[in-house]
Amino acid sequence: MTATIPTRTVVTPARIVRNGFSRIRYEFLAYFRQGDAVFFTFLFPVVMLTIFSVAFSSSNFFGKDAAGHPVSAAAYYLPGMLAAGVLLSGLQNLAIDIAGEKSDGTLKRLAGTPLSVTSYFIGKIGRALITGVLQAALLILLAKVAFGVPIPTDGAKWLTFAWVFLLGVATCAILGIGLSALPRSGKSATAVIIPIVLVLQFISGVYLAFTNLPTWLQNVASLFPLKWLAQGMRSVFLPSSLEAAESGGSWNLPGVAIALAIWLVVGLILARVTFRWIRKDS
Hints:
mainly alpha, elongated, 282 residues, 0% strand
């Protein structure tokens, strides 16, 4: 009698990518089945933009454009909400999600499947990208249709938006994977991660004018990626007349690229050091 030796599945780059894209679809559908996650990471910036736009609709202290027309509250807050949306979809959502999957045994179960770590990460980052794109489109549509915010028509502006957005999504998603090791359990993940995200939003120019903050707090915020992400978004959607109001008197797009790239590398190191896959051959 001849014994049958089980064949081992060969993990090729093509298979990893194919499994990763299949995982994106699963992650996307699972995400929109979670009502609380959808509200706090997808709809939260939309709600906040609506609140600020209505509450400060009669205010004229957001500056003026080159023609001397006042900048509306909706136009002023749109870039910050776009940046916050990237942070929420990437860092907050993935950090809480992965911490929960570690705690409830999901990762242990996945370790017994052919899914590789890389495919798993492709699924998470892909979901962050898709939800981020949908969220950005919804924010821009709301600002344009409901509040009459002028949308850039210059192709160079949209090119800037594209690289700032994509680099921001990649950075925040990778940092979210790295920070998923911070909560001690899935139950404590929300309590640990959300305060960090809220503090970053308040000190990074999302809800408050960045240059109105104390200098020392501006310096602290400049150490983190959200400040640079919000600054890059402002360079796209705010008139050039407001550039002088930035710290340093310019949009400093090279600085935005460098800061986000540095944090992307930091996130990769954190993810490599802190993330643990059960199966040794992964």
